[in-house]
Amino acid sequence: MRIDHLMVEQWIQQNSRVLDLGCGDGTLLSHLQANKNVHGYGLDINAENIVRCVENGVNVIEQNIEEGLYNFDDQSFDTVIMSQTLQTMHNPDKVLEEMLRVGKQCIVTFPNFGHWKARFHLALNGRMPVSDILPYEWYNTPNIHFCTFRDFEVLCEALKLKVLNREVIATQSSGAFLRSVWPNLFGETALYRVTK
Amino acid sequence: MPDNFAQDSVGLVTPQTFHFDEPLILACGRTLQSYDLIVETYGELNPQKTNAVLICHALSGHHHAAGFHHADDKKPGWWDAYIGPGKPLDTNKFFIVSLNNLGGCHGSTGPTSIDPDSGKPYGANFPNLRVRDWVHSQARLMERFGIKQWAAVVGGSLGGMQAMRWSLEYPDRVRHCVVIASAMKLTAQNIAFNETARRAIMTDHNYNDGDYLQHQTLPQEGLSIARMIGHITYLSDDGMGQKFGRELRSGSFAQGIEEPVEFQIQSYLRYQGENFSKSFDANTYILMTRALDYFDLAREYNDDAAQAFRQAQSKFLVISFTSDWRFAPERSREIINALMKADRDVVYAEIESPYGHDAFLVPQQVRYWDLLTTYMQKIEVSC
Predict the structure, then answer these.
(1) What residues of chain B, 294 to 353, have a C-beta less than 8 Å from chain A?
(2) Other CB atoms within 10 Å distance of the CB of residue B118
(3) Deepest of A166, B21, B170, B372, by most Cβ within 10 A of its Cβ?
(4) Dihedrals φ, ψ of A139, to 5°?
């Protein structure tokens, strides 16, 4: 199981109601159903993902989250998750506000653009970073709104959100110490649990 | 089975007629003392009887959904593209039951049948039916087969309405409900099209207040126009444009030529209308369009669709098509929003398609095929 999914799972209550925005092939929801007995729905717009979700036995709705969550009532989910999708949104701030209107708590994960490799790539090569975790060129990337941990926290402050937990993940184990000291420099993926 | 059928065809099929003597009390208050239902089945019912799928037909459908009645039939059943060995409704896995609904004109009791009270055809005196009447008659058919629970009830358009009603009327008898290009109720515009079609029939001087069979006339002109109106609304503007454009069938716009021109679309529509009017009963058309108009899933649940769906125990697959403006994707989104509010399991997809409302019948649409196949394959039949 993916480490970021394991961490998300820790923050999910047993038997709770979960909405997963940009649910991909439904792997995360499928784990949460099996391990936490959640009742969940995933939203996605990719045809292939929707079929994979059906194979994985999760509820999936074809819906573009950029157009808002107008069809969901206030506080109708215990948790709204957005995993590795915030940076692809045209209006990340509005999406985050919508998530917190619909969910009692929200879990957001995103790639940290403040990671030292990204900084070095840009500083030394003068070009937008391309790496294992961010394999796209600037012109074809779906990731249009990159941010760093610090940027995200500034947004949380502006939206008056409470950060309940923050975690960072680095794939290299040698980075464990460094990322605990300088998360914004050595963390590759950020995970936040926020509420209003 | 003869060798000349495709490997994924159910081949030759023979309809069976089931007679029911137990009176059926209808939603309108009248009672059918006895009635027949004509039925086709495809595939084998397993010993535990857990692999049965009910197909509910739409406005002009009938029991002949797949295969051929005769080796030299030109066309197979109306949903043959999706029913057969290895197809989404896989007859290697499922036992598929397809019937002509009550009020139909293909062998089940309907307006063309003889009313035992008068000894004459029912005609316009055939009771008005609602979707729930069909569901109750289908439940009796199910008992006749000894089936306790459908693995799935599947339907497009008016058929989708039956599938949804099944999930509310007999929650423990449906495991999966597949609702394609449907709606929880018709919009005013939709009712308006149906009313225009009905008026075309009723104002035909051969209609004779619905008793045309007794007068040995047929309101074919009216029924033909009704079908033409319907047909326009089942296609999309773009789809029609791609297929027919402004192509001429005959005549010319050249100067000095007086011969009137005929566009391809004109002759196509007329052909469709005329053909239909020869094979379909006008009173059935009126009855079916009224059933569409009257359907309102949530009416008896305080007009709250979520409250309605809280009755359901089945899982749902809901599918819409982008160019369908008669049963637009928005109508399907209303269904899934209510289902999510009711905390039911649901999968929803909006299939890109140029074929309008008819898309649910059109073969070779990859995404539609894949989704329906994957969903049906996931259904457990060994429980």
Answers:
(1) 333, 336-337, 340-341, 343, 345-350
(2) 11
(3) B372
(4) -85, -15
* pLDDT tens figures, A13-62: 999 999 999 999 999 999 999 999 999 999 999 999 999 999 999 999 99
- Report whether A82 contacts A22 (CB < 8 A): yes
B177 touches chain A (CB under 8 A): no
Domain boundaries, chain A: 3-195
Q: Hey, where are the domains in chain B?
A: 16-185+298-378, 194-288
| CATH 1.20.58.480 holds for B194-288 | no
- Flag if A55 and B341 touch (Cβ within 8 Å): no
Q: pLDDT tens for residues A45-59?
A: 999 999 999 999 999
Q: Which residues of chain B have pLDDT under 70?
A: 1-3, 383
pLDDT tens-place string over residues A71-126: 999 999 999 999 988 888 899 999 999 999 999 999 999 887 767 677 777 777 77
CATH number assigned to the domain covering B16-185+298-378:
3.40.50.1820
Pairing of strands B176-180, B315-321: parallel
DSSP state of A121: I
* Whether A53 and B340 lie within 8 Å, measured CB to CB: no
Query: Is B106 a catalytic site residue?
Result: no
Contact residues on chain A for B175, CB-CB shorter than 8 A: none
Six-digit token pair at B307? Answer: 């409250």
Residue A172 has pLDDT above 80, yes or no: no
Catalytic residue among B9, B108, B113, B157: B157
Please tell me the CATH superfamily of domain A3-195, with its number.
Answer: Vaccinia Virus protein VP39 (3.40.50.150)
Task: Identify which of A39, A50, A55 has the shortest CB distance to residue B349.
Answer: A50
Closest CA–CA distance from residue B181 to any residue of chain A (Å): 15
Neighbour tally for A31: CB within 10 Å: 20
SS3 assignment, position B145: coil
> Is A46 an 8 Å CB contact of chain B?
no
Helix axes A47-55, B366-378, angle to 10 degrees: 10
Q: What string of H, E and C letters represents the secondary structure of A51-63?
A: HHHHHCCCCEEEC
Taking an 8 Å cut-off on Cβ atoms, the answer to whether B347 and A73 are in contact is no
User: pLDDT tens, B316-372?
Assistant: 999 999 999 999 999 999 999 999 999 999 999 999 999 999 999 999 999 999 999
Q: What is the DSSP letter of B68?
A: B
B215 is catalytic: no
Nearest partner of B350 among A56, A52, A47, judged by Cα: A47
Which one, of B111, B109, B115, lies nearest residue B123 by Cα? B111
Tell me which chain B residues have a C-beta less than 8 angstroms from the C-beta of A57. 378
Contact at 8 Å (CB) between B251 and B262?
A: yes
